[in-house]
Amino acid sequence: MSTPLPALIIGAGIAGLPLALQLAKAGKPSIVIERCPGLETKGQNIDLRGPGQEVVARLGLEAAIRAKTTTEKGMSVEDENRKSWAFFGVSEQKEGKKNTSPTSDIEILRGDLADVFYQECLAKYPNLISFRFGAKIASIEENDDSVTLTLKSGEVLHGSILVGADGQGSQVRQMCLASSSNINVRHFHLYMSYYTIPREEHDTDIWRIYITTKRRSLFIRPDGSGKTVRVSLCVMTQDPEAVKAFEEQRDPKVYKEKLKEIFTGAGWEAPRLLKAMDETSDFYLHPTVQIRMDKWHKGRVVLLGDAAWAPSPLGGMGTTLAVSGAYLLAWHLNRKDVGDDPTKAFTRWEEEYRGYVEKAQDIPSFAPGLFYPRNVLEVKALRWFAYMIGVVSKLPFLGSFFGGGEDPFKLPADEEMA
Ligand SMILES: Cc1cc2nc3c(=O)[nH]c(=O)nc-3n(C[C@H](O)[C@H](O)[C@H](O)COP(=O)(O)OP(=O)(O)OC[C@H]3O[C@@H](n4cnc5c(N)ncnc54)[C@H](O)[C@@H]3O)c2cc1C
């Protein structure tokens, strides 16, 4: 019997790694190709909800993941004097229910979640999952019964399928699906920067948010280390100078100068955060966009996670969609009746999953603007609104109204695979 061709998975990220694990569970090999020289451990706090939590439990990784959470106890909306106007505690995941509080019971650093998946690949499936780090794609060629991937190093890999799990800026999307799917990039005109700074005595295990005028907000979040905290400066702007600095220059120095200009005088902890920005080693900034496509697959090539549907960080669903989408894709690929025709699996998977993704992407265009007020009046109105929601959501008879109801997506059982 000939050895089956591996799945070629581009991107050792939050979507690519659980896909490799779930395929390996069914005895299927994969090669994971990552452009970074090692596992990309950058990234700040991400949360895992509903079906995403169910997937890690089924992979036997729940304890390892819970051991690495950021210990965040909730989210507080503060004013310039650090007075809290609203507090939202941790919302615990209840089976089959949506978890809609800003702080989920699994808050983890992106790098830690990726590392748990990666270590599991190494420990449990050394013969089924292999890695190519620091690898750059030169070309992708589809044949009737396989896909050929050539790397810039000259290495040529043959796979049964190729999965683009290469994030929001996906190269696979551009190379393989640009001609067959309408790709719509929805821009929120929101720029979010992230970095790590030393923890100070008054920092707590609460995610603290300060929202101020001129569409600016500042976040400080715990990371569980006890030594550092994670910071975010966010601004919604269409000012041509700012857009040029954030979109065209691709230079952290330029980003930082622009952020200093925008956030100087913002109040709250802005002086501390701006000063620390110069000393941090992990600064990055990205425009907040959403990717929408008519179709996520073509022939033997399929997109997964942010590459296919980046929902934006605004809904807090990017990680959950990536992890449960990976599981469901593997579930369909592992079905016996798929045989040699992966497009059957891709089609069934997309039919089943698209509705859930589109629901998560359904952010009304006015909504982000509500959280980025322009002037003092709007800031005050937002604080009172947050205060009321904070109070009402704690009332027992109304609390469940904010609990989110049924989660619209249910994972199929492993045993149902036939
Ligand atoms: C550095 C980084 C930091 C992030 N920080 C946050 C954050 O703070 N908060 C948040 O909510 N979300 C963050 N995200 C996004 C979050 O991880 C995703 O929204 C989500 O988890 C979906 O995962 P994904 O696997 O689809 O994409 P990602 O987690 O982005 O993984 C994509 C992987 O593909 C690799 N890759 C990209 N292009 C290529 C290529 N051409 N060839 C090979 N490999 C490639 C990347 O290096 C990365 O390892 C971050 C992503 C990255 C890459």
UniProtKB/TrEMBL annotation:
GO molecular function: FAD binding; oxidoreductase activity
Record carries keyword RNA-binding: no
FAD-binding domain: residues covered: 6-340
Signal peptide span: 1-26
Domain of life: Eukaryota
Annotated InterPro entries: FAD-bd, FAD/NAD-bd_sf, FAD_aromatic-hydroxylase
Keywords attached to this entry: FAD, Flavoprotein, Oxidoreductase, Signal
Annotated coiled-coil segments of the chain: none
SUPFAM superfamilies: FAD/NAD(P)-binding domain (SSF51905)
One Pfam match: FAD_binding_3
PANTHER family on file: MONOOXYGENASE, OXIDOREDUCTASE-RELATED
Protein name: FAD/NAD(P)-binding domain-containing protein
